[in-house]
Amino acid sequence: MPTTEASWERQQTPPRQNILEIEGLHTQFELDDGVVQAVSGVDLAIARGEVLAVVGESGCGKSVMARSVLRLVDRPGRITGGQIRVRTDDGAADMVSAAPETVREVRGKRVAMVFQEPMSSMSPMHTIGNQIGEAIRLHERVTKAEARARAVELLGRVGIPAPERRVDEYPFQMSGGMLQRVMIAMALSCGPQLLIADEPTTALDVTTQAQILDLLRGLQEETGMAVMLITHDLGVAAQMADRVAVMYLGTVVEEGRVEDVFRAPRHPYTTALLRSVPKLGSGSRERLRPVRGMVPHSYRRPSGCPFHPRCDEFMAGRCDVTVPEPLRDQGRPGAVSCLLYEEHEEHEEHEETTP
Amino acid sequence: MTAPPSEVTATAAATATGTAPLLRTHGLTKHFPIRRGLLGRAVGRVRAVDGVDLTVPAGRTVALVGESGCGKSTLGRCLMRFFEPTSGEISYRRTDGTVIDLAKLDERALKPYRSEIRLVFQDPFASLNPRMTLLQIIGEPLRVNLGLGAAETEERVAELLRRVGLRPEYLRRYPNAFSGGQRQRVGIARALALAPRMVVADEAVSALDVSVRAQILNLLKDLQDESDLTYLFISHDLGVVEYMADEIAVMYVGKVVETGATDELYGQPLHPYTEALLSAVPEPDPGARRRERVVLRGEVADASNVPQGCPFHPRCFYARDRCRTEVPALREIAAGRTSACHFAGELELKGCRA
User: Fold this and answer.
1) Is A341 within a domain?
2) Alpha-carbon torsion (A145, B298, B287, A250), positive or negative
3) By CA distance, what is A212's nearest residue in B?
4) What residues make up the domain containing A52?
5) Nearest CA in chain A to B265
6) What is the pLDDT, as a whole number, of residue A249?
7) How many domains does chain A have?
8) Is there a cis peptide before residue B141, judged by omega within 30 degrees of 0?
9) Euclidean distance between CA atoms B276 and B150, whole angstroms
10) Could you tell me if residue A271 is inside a domain?
11) How would residue B237 be classed by pLDDT, with cut points 50, 70 and 90?
12) What pLDDT does residue A14 have?
């Protein structure tokens, strides 16, 4: 069964205050050739001040999931089920069913988003100051001069040198790393409680990436906002996140504390992903052992466990039939959706009843 | 007709040592003029590649690493004369053992070498013609260079698609139906179509997902073993580079600042820039989080306005007065190790080997 709010709170020893709860989210794309289940029953929660990394390969639905939170899925994409509860001053707003005014109120002010390609996310025709100012004036009643002053201050906070001069520059005058800082400044402009960063450093150099990750960490600690970091880079997830959720074909297959998931992965997909990365400094020239096969065609979602055709632990007659439910482990917070563990539990019960 | 004496000696040298480089550049330079005004007068120049000596041994993998804008892609393109080098030599050893300077050949003389050295492009969205199907894109060199018929081309393209991890059914689809990762595989399939001797892989796996990337890296290694391929592997991903490369050249603003065998360079870098690059890599290990990092200040220097002295000095944590005035030359520090740092060997730089 989909996780309930009560069980999320039970798993953490100090009761966590979730600022975002996604439950049973389904987002699909109805195309001429068929229906693509981009997000297929995702349950996730983010607590105040937490950094959650959502990792997975392209096509796993992580970006669509993130965009669903802000109702930014364009047609033919459509949210077809589930709830996305964003904490507001008076309780929670369900982004799936909320009225457009509520959606606008949440966007930018409560939940802000940073995209992968800063150049294509900004208007080339307006100065950086105007674009940040617009975001501020959309949510707050301030004069243009005040908005500009705020923009200068924000640019300074994200580490842009000479902000009072650069506020009047156009996006083309800045490097990729600088533009990503501008995007972050814009996202921070209304003090969001959650920042969704969709592959924020993927287009950047390692050195610039390190700078941007440092900046995000610093801002997160300073403001106490939560961050949902969408990334394909396991290294970035390991360095940044408190918790990590691994997605495959629109579902979260494993979720837990970053130390647990990286040190002792439970889902065979997580294991396979981790061993696909050449480990820096190991000097190993051994063949990499990637995940077998390819991601299945998006119209043909495998029966049972979506990962079964590529899984090393495939159990015929079980994995291709039964859709695994998220299972909790007594020993550690988080969940894994794999029949391997369901079977262990059954075994244990079996042994207990028949000594 | 007999070959000129110089070529004869080159052949002799090549067969004698057996480890002769497949390709070697000497003082390779590419400056782009900055033109302004009505008459388009050159008012300055971008020193994209500035006097690079690079040796690529046959059957080995040499990696060019550095941040974007360091000139590594321009260098890769100069080797195949997609960009005309401003000056310098590109010595290439032909299949018969003779050595020629690719930089001096005219377009017609160059043509046969264009199928021997193939490039896998960086941007999978810009490098595939959106109006051609995969069959046409990958099949084009097969038809043009090998003169294969339609049925045979289709069979070979299907096989190539399979080898790069794509479904053969995709043959008649257009690039817009594919993700960035899949397109990059198409680019790799196209480069491999003519069974080249050398592949210049320009960020060839950067757009790929980790599991797919591992498959492609394995594939590239298999191909190298099978057909004695030589790779020039241009990448910013130091994890992948460590796995792939036998030797490494680190570039910064148009110049090679450090070279060495992979193990030695990762174990003990001799240039502060290399140290910073290695330190910036996020490791997939939460335990490495508290590790002390060298986070570089600022950005890559502007190649049209290279700083005085050592080009790296404004970002260098070890910079001293001498670095601000005197340009360091790339010099040998130890056997097989070169560095362009005044204080190479004196500085205690951190590598990333346990």
Assistant:
1) yes
2) positive
3) B295
4) 5-110+192-280+291-353
5) A281
6) 92
7) 1
8) no
9) 52
10) yes
11) confident
12) 56
* Per-residue tokens: B106: 């005219």
Please check whether residue B315 is in contact with residue B296, taking contact to mean a CB–CB distance below 8 angstroms.
yes
Tens-digit pLDDT profile for residues B184-216:
788 888 988 888 999 999 888 877 778 778 888
Q: What is the ipTM of this complex?
A: 0.80
Rounded to whole angstroms, how far apart are CA atoms B155 and B29? 42
Other Cβ atoms less than 10 A from the Cβ of A118: the count is 24
Q: How confident is the model at residue A344 (pLDDT cuts 50, 70, 90)?
A: low
Residue A177 lies in a domain: no
- Sorted by sequence, the CB contacts under 8 Å of residue A255 that are 6+ apart come out as A44, A243, A244, A245, A246, A261, A326, A334, A335, A336
Rank A70-74, A201-205, B38-42 by mean pLDDT and report only the highest.
A70-74
Q: Are A269 and B211 in contact (CB under 8 A)?
A: no
- Spatial distance between the Cα atoms of A158 and A150, rounded to a whole number of angstroms: 12
Question: Is there a domain that residue A159 lies in?
Answer: no
Q: Which residue has the tokens 């040198």?
A: A161
How many A×B Cβ pairs under 8 Å?
A: 141
Candidate from A214, A235, A297 with C-beta closest to B284: A235
CB B330 within 8 A of CB B340: yes
Q: Which domain CATH number covers A213?
A: 3.40.50.300
Residue B298 CA: distances (Å) to CA of A186, A210, B301, B312: 21, 12, 9, 11
Considering only CB atoms, which chain B residues are within 8 Å of A238? 282-286, 288-289
Cα–Cα distance for residue pair B54/B140, rounded to 1 Å: 32
Distance from CA of A181 to the nearest CA of B (A): 13
User: Cα(B110)–Cα(B103) distance, rounded to whole angstroms?
Assistant: 9
Q: What is the DSSP letter of A107?
A: B
| pLDDT tens digits, A2-20 | 444 444 444 445 567 899 9
Expressed in percent and rounded to 5, the helix, strand and coil fractions of chain B are 40, 25, 40
